[in-house]
Design brief:
single chain, 14 helices
Length: 283
């Protein structure tokens, strides 16, 4: 069976082929084309589209396409089920879902940077998911630090960290300046990134990433930016005539589907339902 999706795969568009090959169809063939060609090529090649809006194999609510394949084909393998929240967290930028999600995203982004050919990228990515499956099946309880002395050092370190976090700290200058930069650029810079801000502050991005949540409402950089953009979207919904598609674009979301998922996560309602309920209240 042929499967087709958008070019330049990272998470879902490699995780799903791995799942298909290993649990659904060993002879499956995968095709990557530009986004605007997927449906046309799917008809021409008699291929099934996946990880694409308005198709069967796509995101539903807070679930990613990998989740849908598991449900559709009733996959009960416990290691695959353990992988699901890791893949979901990495694919939807909700790295709080699983400790491994941020690592999976970093590796996937690095692979996409190193391999410009999508099929070479797929083959390398398959190895990553083979390794993740082995970890989920055999090694979840293994730790890198197994020796008693190493564990003693970790205990001391963790107690020290907890003590430090418990003491009230003054907001450092970099955090104050960072907040001002974000407020100044959030409306105009739709690709605002931690790396970009770190250059302006002359502070290493790894340090900013590690320390960010302490001074920004216990949120990661990505979560904080999305929160501000949702707040801006709500302002536009209630004070302008922009369509939801236009608001999604104006607030920095890749498409309306992505905007809808994040909006519902923050407010508990789809944008259209939220807008209607507020209009009804005003009426």
């Amino acid at each position: 069976m042929k499967w087709i999706t958008r070019e330049r795969p990272k998470i879902d568009r490699i995780a799903c082929p791995w799942l298909i090959k290993n649990f659904i169809d060993k002879e499956a063939e995968f095709i990557y084309v530009p986004f605007n060609q997927v449906k046309t090529k799917a008809n021409e090649l008699n291929a099934t589209p996946f990880d694409l809006p308005d198709t069967e194999f796509t995101h539903y609510d807070d679930q990613c396409t990998f989740d849908y394949f598991i449900k559709k084909y009733n996959i009960k393998d416990m290691a695959v089920l353990a992988m699901a929240p890791i893949v979901r967290g990495a694919d939807t930028d909700r790295h709080d879902m699983a400790d491994q999600s941020s690592g999976l995203w970093a590796i996937a982004a690095g692979l996409a940077y190193n391999f410009k050919n999508d099929h070479e990228l797929l083959q390398s990515g398959m190895m990553i998911y083979d390794a993740l499956y082995s970890w989920a099946k055999y090694l979840q309880n293994e730790k890198h630090t197994q020796q008693p002395f190493e564990n003693l050092l970790l205990d001391v370190f963790n107690k020290f960290i907890k003590k430090q976090r418990g003491s009230k700290k003054k907001t450092p200058a970099w955090a104050q300046e960072m907040k001002e930069i974000i407020q100044d650029q959030i409306d105009t810079n739709l690709t605002l990134s931690l790396k970009e801000i770190s250059k302006g502050l002359n502070v290493h991005p790894s340090y900013l990433s590690r320390e960010f949540s302490k001074y920004f409402e216990d949120l990661s950089f990505g979560e904080y930016i999305r929160k501000l953009r949702i707040e801006k979207a709500i302002q536009l919904m209630l004070s302008s005539d922009y369509s939801l598609t236009e608001i999604a674009y104006l607030t920095g979301f890749s498409d309306q589907s992505h905007f809808t998922r994040i909006f519902k996560k923050h407010t508990g309602k789809n944008p259209s339902a939220y807008k209607k309920s507020n209009q009804d209240t005003k009426g």
